[in-house]
């Protein structure tokens, strides 16, 4: 089994995230895509981060119609901050029958050398990279696959601002997730 791991804070989950997961599933060799909510990434500012369980609920609502996309809480009970290499170790120990690959934007690849134990990740896992601007770092690495996808320009930061201002986000956020956000007064 081959599983693509798509890490993120998903604050909030939006149609760009879903489109990337769906495109990776349809164009690559993945049996499933696991979207892993990162409760505490070492590279994020958390001044407006919604509780991880609320983000998990938003993600579950967003992927209801995609049986091959799964929501994961694997990092919820791990030491903080969450490091990708540690999560990969844990998953590989729990599921030695599975080949885990990472799905990430080219902007993350540009900074992967700042990740803790990044060499271990590059050596043991394939990275499937989607475009988010120009990038040349590590492109010649044997375990890196650049996937040609349309550039999706949706910003979770901008969506949070729009939600705080009561602006329409129906084109950017899945309908069930948006309804949940509105009903629960998230980002207000």
Rg of Cα set: 16 Å
N- to C-terminal separation? 41 Å
Alpha-beta content class: alpha/beta
Helices and strands, in N-to-C order?
EHEHEHEHHEEHH
Main sheet: which strands, in order across? 3-2-1-4-5-6
Helix content: 25-40%
The CATH topology label is Rossmann fold
Note poorly predicted spans: none
CATH uppermost class: Alpha Beta
Mean pLDDT: 92
Beta-strand content estimate: 15-25%
Q: How many domains, as an integer?
A: 1
- Principal-axes geometry comes out as globular
Q: Which architecture does the CATH hierarchy give at level 2?
A: 3-Layer(aba) Sandwich
Fourth-tier CATH superfamily name: HUPs
How many strands?
A: 6
Count of helices?
Answer: 7
Tell me the major beta sheet: 6 strands, parallel
Walk me through this protein's architecture.
The protein has one domain: HUPs (Rossmann fold). 35% of the residues lie in helices and 16% in strands. The protein contains 7 helices and 6 strands, in the order βαβαβαβααββαα. Strand 1, helix 1 and strand 2 form a beta-alpha-beta unit. Helix 2 packs antiparallel against helix 7.
């Amino acid at each position: 089994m081959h599983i693509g791991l798509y890490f993120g804070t998903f604050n909030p989950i939006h149609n760009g995230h879903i489109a990337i997961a769906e495109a990776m599933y349809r164009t690559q060799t993945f049996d499933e895509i696991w979207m892993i909510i990162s409760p505490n990434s070492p590279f994020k500012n958390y001044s407006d981060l919604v509780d991880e369980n609320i983000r998990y609920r938003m993600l579950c609502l967003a992927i209801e119609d995609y049986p091959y996309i799964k929501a994961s809480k694997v990092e919820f009970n791990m030491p903080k901050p969450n490091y990708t290499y540690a999560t990969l170790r844990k998953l590989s120990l729990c599921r030695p029958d599975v080949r885990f690959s990472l799905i990430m934007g080219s902007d993350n690849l540009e900074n992967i050398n700042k990740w803790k134990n990044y060499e271990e990740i590059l050596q043991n896992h394939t990275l499937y990279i989607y475009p988010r601007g120009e990038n040349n770092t590590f492109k010649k690495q044997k375990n890196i696959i650049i996937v040609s996808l349309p550039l999706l320009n949706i910003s979770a930061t901008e969506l949070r601002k729009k939600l705080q201002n009561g602006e329409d986000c129906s084109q950017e956020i899945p309908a069930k997730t948006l309804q949940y956000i509105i009903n629960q007064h998230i980002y207000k």
